[in-house]
Design brief:
With 455 residues, this protein is of the alpha/beta class. Helices cover 38% and strands 20% of the residues. The chain contains 17 helices and 17 strands. Strands 1, 2, 3, 4, 5, 14, 15, 16 and 17 form a nine-stranded mixed β-sheet that branches. The two termini are 24 Å apart. The mean pLDDT is 96. The structure holds zinc ion. Zinc ion binds next to loops. This is Amidohydrolase family protein.
Length: 455
């Protein structure tokens, strides 16, 4: 049966266009036609869905996600999430209009990615970070989720087996970032002292010893003493505590840097897109890699708005990346709604209001998987005046699809022949997702995932 969705506005996500009072015709799971106002109003033989207060947009594409498959979690190769959690993450992506995700944990097998794809209505695609340095970094930081198949794999084999990108190259867990502050450093302090420190306290201790750039020569003994006292560790011998910080954070850092270099070289060699963890700890390395010849291969700097940079540093690095032909991805994290990990929108606003620094929106993981929805990022760009409706939608649909060939069948546009992966959302606030279709099938109604999206 044919269905016509008549909407207040149709956003095809191609050419910066919007179609007022347009329509989208769906048949056999595919888009049969996109109609202008006049034809959409003509008699139609089939089911008509009238949503005059809504926008119809392509299903969103999220190229920076973690915890969406049974593979090892994060670039640190941590133990996989239990099934109900990764399926739950996919539910949340879908309920908010995302129909394709790229798993950027990077160290799983394609069998695990295919398992997630088969088990859920969201299209799950895989990236690979199986370089020697990245694997060594994971084993140094954690590696609890890495089995023999993960350790033995290579980027080349993963690409042959269907991985569509290389990444995430580096990560907070292996580069002395947020993952260290949240999990590994507090755990090490607990083992040594029996005491619990917060993420902020762990970060404070780490930065007093290693600075923001994970440099052993940049310690500040006085600051370290003050922060140790604040964290309730004033009685722990200072040398011992310092050695613990260095010994917990640093073993993976050098390997992770090697992994970033190897991954970008592989992207150039194989002509495949790569996603790189852009943060203070990787900034100098990224600068040195910007000059690599990129006759083939696309490099995407992940979360150019990472708050380990100062706003100035983030701007300068993103400009250098843009000038070298790299692409910039801004992550929503939880900076718009949750505000557990990122409590400022300064970086986001500065980067998005400058021309050409951000091409793509994604989410990354947020605090323990509680990231804001990608569609909230799209809506925010419109509300803040950074982009038009059409531009904002393209940054989370057709642009990421074009950057990563093979990621989305049909290119995440509303056009004839493309799969009917479609979102219907309130026009004046896209976060109000009324319905989502995948391959023409209803999978979300009024923000609720329907039974049957899990296989
Ligand atoms: Zn990252």
């Amino acid at each position: 049966m044919r269905t016509l969705i008549r909407a207040g506005v149709v956003v095809p996500a191609t050419g910066g266009r919007t179609v007022e009072n347009g329509g989208v015709v769906i048949e056999n799971g595919r888009i049969l036609d996109v109609l202008g106002a006049r034809t959409a109003g003509e008699p139609f033989a089939g089911r008509i869905v009238d949503v005059p207060d809504c926008a119809v947009i392509p299903g969103l594409v999220n190229i920076h996600t973690h915890g969406v498959s049974p593979s090892p979690l994060f670039p640190s190769g941590a133990a996989a999430l239990p099934e109900e959690r990764w399926l739950g993450h996919l539910d949340r992506h879908l309920a908010a209009g995302t129909t394709t995700v790229l798993s950027t944990c990077g160290l799983g097998t394609m069998a695990e990615i295919r398992e997630a794809d088969r088990r859920h209505a969201v299209h799950v695609r895989g990236a690979t970070a199986h370089t020697p340095g990245a694997l060594a970094a994971a084993l140094a930081a954690d590696g609890a989720g890495l089995g023999p198949a993960h350790r033995a794999s290579t980027v080349e084999r993963m690409l042959e087996d269907g991985a569509v990108a290389i990444g995430e190259l580096g990560g907070g867990q292996t580069l002395g970032g947020g993952g260290q502050d949240l999990v590994y450093l507090p755990a090490a302090i607990r083992r040594l002292t029996g005491r619990t420190v917060t993420q902020e306290q762990a970060r404070g201790l780490k930065e007093a010893v290693l600075g923001r750039f994970m440099d052993e020569g940049s310690g500040d003994a006085e600051l370290f003493a003050a922060r140790a006292a604040e964290a309730g560790l004033g009685d722990v011998p200072r040398d011992e505590l310092r050695a613990l910080v260095v010994g917990t954070v640093m073993p993976s850092v050098g390997h992770a840097r090697d992994g970033i270099r190897e991954g970008i070289e592989a992207a150039v060699r194989f002509g495949v897109p790569a996603l790189v963890h852009s943060a203070a700890a990787s900034a100098d390395l990224i600068r040195s890699l910007l000059s690599l010849p990129r006759a083939r291969g696309t490099v995407i700097a992940g979360h150019v708005n990472h708050t380990s940079h100062t706003v100035e540093e983030a701007m300068r690095l993103a400009e250098a990346g843009r000038d070298a032909g790299w692409h910039g991805e801004a992550s929503v994290f939880d900076l718009l709604e949750g505000r557990e990990t990122v409590r400022t929108r300064e970086h986001w606003d500065a980067l998005l209001s400058a021309p050409g620094l951000v091409d793509v929106l994604a989410t990354d993981y947020g605090h323990d998987g509680r990231h804001d929805p990608l569609i909230a990022g799209v809506q925010d760009l419109i509300d803040a005046g950074h982009r038009t409706l059409a531009q904002a939608v393209e940054m989370a649909t057709s642009v990421p699809a074009a950057l990563i060939p093979g990621l989305v069948d049909g290119g995440a546009m509303l056009r004839r022949g493309a799969p009917a992966d479609v979102v219907i959302a309130r026009r004046d606030d896209l976060r109000d997702v009324r319905a989502v279709l995948v391959g023409g099938e209803d999978v979300v109604r009024h923000g609720q995932v329907l039974a049957g999206v899990h296989a």
